[in-house]
Amino acid sequence: MPKPPLTILLAAPRGFCAGVVRAIDIVERALELYGAPVYVRHEIVHNKYVVDDLKAKGAIFVEELDEIPDGDRPVVFSAHGVPKAVPAEARRRAMFQIDATCPLVTKVHMEAQRHFGEGLEIVLIGHKGHPEVIGTMGQLPQGAVTLIETVADAEALTVRDPQKLAFVTQTTLSVDDTKDVIAELQRRFPSIRGPIKEDICYATTNRQDAVKSIAGKIDLLAVVGAPNSSNSKRLVEVGEKGGCPRGLLVQRAADLDWTSLQGLRCIGLTAGASAPEVLVNEIIDAFRAHYDVSVEKVTLREENVSFKLPRELRESQPAA
Predict the structure, then answer these.
(1) Is 312 domain-assigned?
(2) In the Cβ-directed half-sphere of 194, how many Cα atoms lie within 13 Å?
(3) Which structural domain range is residue 286 located in?
(4) What angle do CA 235, 82, 123 make, to 5 degrees?
(5) pTM of the prediction?
(6) Which among 46, 64, 149, 264 is placed 20 to 30 Å from 126, CA to CA?
(7) Is 111 a catalytic residue?
(8) Which of 36, 41, 83 is CA-nearest to residue 66?
(9) Do residue 241 and residue 274 come from a single domain?
(10) What is the pLDDT of residues 176-201, one digit of tens each?
(11) Catalytic hit among 121, 132, 296, 315
(12) Mind listing the pLDDT tens digit for each residue in 7-53?
């Protein structure tokens, strides 16, 4: 039996962003310089394949610093950022700490701190419980930041002084949904201050725009990413809102349910910002086993962003 034809529209940009590349490079460089183990607080990025690969190289992942024994081993903070209490505790224990927080998340932290220093009440648009949100709220005293998620939250928000108000956002939100929340905040509180340049990062915006460009042409959008990856889940939502009948978040080819993937003619394929390209190729190969696949690359724009490693990793030399 000949395989049925299937066109895969391979969206670009997709996959690793500059902040994720930097975070992974930080762990690998620390292992190169200082040997194993290198401790990492929380998943360095939200992808099991990446985490397992770093574990195999000697990284040990923990959720809290109290899981790390005393000593001089490096401790890396994840790309999502951490509350101020975490590096403070690391200093108290004289730990060798290395911060892998994405510079674009650090930008949000600095904005929040600046607004607080100017006496403004701060509204954070983000998802409750996400590590980035926990880290951003943890930059300031408890109660200084109010978290909202939806337009309904913005409608119901009560503030101390409408004239002394500012907002920041999580970097990995849906661009369109966030615009609606911001519009409601600005309608209710015309004096509210926002970021000079929007907080949603370039990579999130680019990946969502790339999905929008193909959403109306496909039967299915497959997003390679982890279930706890905010930017990956947003890609599924953006595809479905953009006209795709079905979005699918998949970690590995082995997770694909082929009984539900029959009769497809054209699918879109992309990857969240923490998903490596090897997993994209794995998914394509899996479809080749069931379909006569032709791949068409759809590149919306090129990315050339990169971030430097922390100085202590750039200037050090590997141990002899």
Answers:
(1) no
(2) 16
(3) 5-16+202-299
(4) 65
(5) 0.94
(6) 64
(7) no
(8) 41
(9) yes
(10) 999 999 999 999 999 999 998 888 89
(11) 132
(12) 999 999 999 999 999 999 999 999 999 999 999 999 999 999 999 99
